[in-house]
């Protein structure tokens, strides 16, 4: 894909962490709070970067010694959830160019959704806080809907917006996003400012790349 290619879809469905929002600092802080509180060694920011992408439960499974087998897992996970809901705005910000990109898409009458493996309440709160009415639908992890890379959250977003799959595109920063797009039957634009680099994404079948949010619109 040429470096400055433009895309023209009716519906744009975005991942959140690593795609629209730089959330790594707050995720790492809450992860380490929960680990330290329960007597476990803390993790570096680079380690947390590698752990994210499959939802926060998987993040903590990877961060806690012995993962789900650890008898303290549920307590550590609960401590993470409580801390993150209170501190998810401490350092989190949209990536440069994201707000301008969303405004341009909205001005052109496009449907815009966010689907995330983040807690449902956190996804809703972050999208309201940062994006307001620029995002039509925001869907996070909840018990009655299967998380990515299953297509359920994407399908629910399409349903809520009454949007056609054939004119929709999925945008994300990870291998999970590439799989989500494939499972949802739509093309995937992979961003290169997020949690995964070009080499990793190519190895996981990503084919279309952008280096700036404004290239999306």
Automatic annotation (TrEMBL):
Keywords annotated in UniProt? Hydrolase
What reaction(s) does this enzyme catalyze?
A: 2-phosphoglycolate + H2O = glycolate + phosphate
Coiled coil residues, start to end: none
- The organism's place on the tree of life at top rank: Bacteria
> Pathway involvement?
Organic acid metabolism; glycolate biosynthesis; glycolate from 2-phosphoglycolate: step 1/1
EC number(s) for this protein? 3.1.3.18
- InterPro entries the UniProt entry points to: HAD-like_hydrolase_sf, HAD-like_sf, HAD-SF_hydro_IA, HAD-SF_hydro_IIIA, HAD_2, HAD_sf, PGP-like_dom2
Protein name, entry field: phosphoglycolate phosphatase
Listed GO molecular functions?
hydrolase activity
Family that this chain belongs to:
Belongs to the HAD-like hydrolase superfamily. CbbY/CbbZ/Gph/YieH family.
Give any Pfam family that matches. Answer: HAD_2
């Amino acid at each position: 894909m040429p470096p400055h290619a433009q895309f023209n879809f009716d519906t744009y469905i975005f991942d959140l962490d690593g795609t629209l929002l730089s959330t790594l600092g707050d995720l790492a802080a809450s992860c380490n709070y929960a680990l330290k509180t329960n007597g476990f060694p803390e993790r570096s920011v680079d380690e947390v970067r590698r752990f994210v992408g499959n939802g926060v439960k998987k993040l903590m499974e990877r961060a806690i010694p012995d993962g789900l087998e650890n008898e303290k897992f549920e307590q550590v996970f609960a401590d993470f959830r409580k801390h993150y809901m209170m501190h998810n705005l401490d350092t989190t910000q949209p990536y440069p160019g994201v707000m301008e990109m969303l405004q341009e898409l909205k001005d052109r009458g496009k449907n815009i959704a966010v689907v995330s493996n983040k807690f449902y309440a956190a996804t809703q709160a972050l999208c309201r806080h940062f994006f307001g009415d620029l995002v039509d639908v925001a869907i996070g992890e909840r018990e009655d809907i299967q998380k990515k890379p299953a297509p359920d959250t994407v399908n629910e977003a399409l349903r809520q917006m009454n949007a056609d799959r054939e004119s929709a595109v999925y945008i994300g920063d990870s291998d999970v996003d590439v799989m989500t797009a494939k499972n949802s039957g739509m093309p995937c634009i992979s961003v290169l400012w997020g949690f995964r680099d070009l080499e990793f994404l190519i190895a996981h079948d990503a084919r279309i790349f952008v280096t700036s949010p404004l290239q999306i619109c």
